[in-house]
Design a protein that fits this description.
The protein is α+β, with helices and mostly antiparallel strands and about 425 residues long. It is built from 21 helices and ten strands. The strands form three sheets. Strands 3-4-5-2-1-8 form a six-stranded mixed β-sheet. Strands 6-7 form a two-stranded antiparallel ribbon. Strands 9-10 form a two-stranded parallel ribbon. A hairpin with a 4-residue loop joins strand 3 and strand 4. Helix 8 packs parallel to helix 10 (about 250-265), helix 8 packs across helix 11 (about 265-275) and helix 16 (about 330-345) crosses helix 18 (about 365-375). The protein is elongated.
Length: about 425
């Protein structure tokens, strides 16, 4: 596929510069860009645009042609190409440049007429998972290896860049060793091999994202793999174990996939897919049978709460799950505050506004924790809402400066008087 063959939305000048910098190194467009191009060109889906490109680079072959050469482990091909491209384009075009030497990858953010474009240049590599669920061992390889390490068949296709003997025929130029094109026609998601989920369980969350975005279903054999893998549970920890038993890398990858699900996708159909597939026990069995899941998330969105935090609130032990997923400390504190409220709210007798304020403003509590309790349907709604919307903002009718002017000395007595005056004002409020 040459620069002239690109559809609207792909910068042809950038492809030309890439090919110039690549010289004789085989380079191919892979992943989502190929998938979306085929959906648009062949299956007539709307063109989604390609704000980022995944490109796989191999070491230059000893002679001409598209045959894949053995890699040179001493110099990842993508890094060599990325540096040449950076130097050719210069700072007027290159906004950011980052290398990840261990994986032989580089990321460039480029200034283009249609807006910023992201290039992810990866040296062709293979991945092996000696321990299920943990980070893979990486070795540089050829394009076929690189396609075989991917999640779904629809993402395991490639279009070589450069001279195109197919004359612009996508089907002829396409490298599709795993039947991705056929799965595109069936509009289904299919894992590449029988151990896909065993190797990396985050792939099922990614699959739900694709299902929501593309309207695809999970292939029957992939559903069977999901059920069998969850039943086997091949990972070295179980739900209920101490969070430290879960590999930090796996927890981080799961969290990142869930963040993408809530931030970038239509999260309701994505979560619906995970529930329909029976995938949520991967995180916590209680989430699979959570009758309040979508109601809680809709209320959380109204309150401006992080949706991932609200999602985890339905787990059997939300805080332990948050720790397994390596959530930020501030998000863990929201869940800790929720758990504290859950212990107290059900047994509380009627209280005055000032008593509610004392309870809800105790150490470890926060407006976010109270809002999450409301989203979860915890406790009496009216006083929690009144505190969240009004009571917590009320102050004493007189300020500290005014009390000092009346003769009070700064210190504990002043603080106590301010609390008394605030409580008096609060208890005049409608309950």
């Amino acid at each position: 596929m040459t620069a002239a063959d690109q559809p609207a939305g792909i910068p042809t000048e950038l492809i030309t510069r890439l090919l110039e910098a690549a010289a004789d190194a085989p380079i191919a467009l892979v992943g989502g860009a190929v998938r979306d191009l085929l959906l648009h060109r062949v299956h007539l889906d709307p063109w989604r645009g390609v704000p980022d490109f995944d490109l796989v680079v191999e070491s230059p072959p000893p002679g001409a042609g598209r045959q894949l050469a053995a890699p040179d482990p001493a110099q990842p091909a993508a890094l060599d190409l990325a540096r040449r491209l950076r130097d050719r384009l210069g700072p007027a075009v290159v906004i950011t440049y980052r290398e990840h030497a261990a994986y032989g990858t580089a990321e460039l953010q480029l200034r283009q007429p249609q807006g910023a474009v992201f290039l992810d240049l990866a040296s062709a590599r293979r991945e092996d998972y000696p321990v299920p669920g943990e980070n893979p061992q990486v070795r540089f390889g050829v394009l076929g290896d690189d396609l075989s390490r991917r999640d779904f068949t629809i993402n395991a296709m490639a279009l070589p860049l450069g001279p195109d003997p197919s004359g612009g025929d996508l089907a002829a130029a396409l490298i599709d060793p795993h039947g991705g094109q056929a799965d595109l026609e069936r509009r289904q998601l299919r894992f590449l091999h029988d151990g896909s989920l065993r190797d990396d369980p985050t792939r099922i969350v990614r699959g739900a994202r694709y299902a929501a975005r593309l309207g695809f279903s999970l292939a029957p054999e992939s559903q069977a793999q999901l059920r069998a893998t969850l039943e086997e549970w091949p990972w070295g920890w179980r739900i209920g174990d101490h969070p430290d038993r879960v590999p930090a890398a796996l927890g981080t990858r799961l969290r990142m996939e869930l963040e993408l699900l809530f931030d970038r996708e239509a999260w309701q159909p994505a979560l619906g897919a995970l529930q329909a597939w029976g995938a949520l026990p991967l995180l916590d069995p209680a989430l699979q049978q959570d009758p309040q899941l979508f109601r809680r998330l809709r209320w959380a969105r109204r309150f401006g709460l992080p949706l991932l935090v609200a999602f985890l609130a339905g787990a059997g032990d939300p805080l332990a799950l948050a720790q397994r997923l390596q959530l930020a400390q501030k998000d863990q504190q929201i869940l800790a505050g929720l758990l504290s409220l859950r212990q107290q709210l059900p047994s509380l007798p009627p209280r005055s506004p000032s008593q509610w304020c004392a309870l809800l403003e105790a150490p470890g509590r926060s407006p976010e924790a109270v809002a999450l309790a409301l989203a979860c349907g915890q406790g009496p709604r009216r006083p929690l809402l009144r505190w969240l919307l009004r009571w917590r903002r009320l102050r004493a009718v007189e300020s500290a400066a005014e009390l000092i002017a009346q003769g009070l000395v700064a210190g504990p007595a002043l603080g106590q008087r301010l609390r008394e005056l605030r409580n008096q004002r609060l208890d005049q409020e409608r309950r």
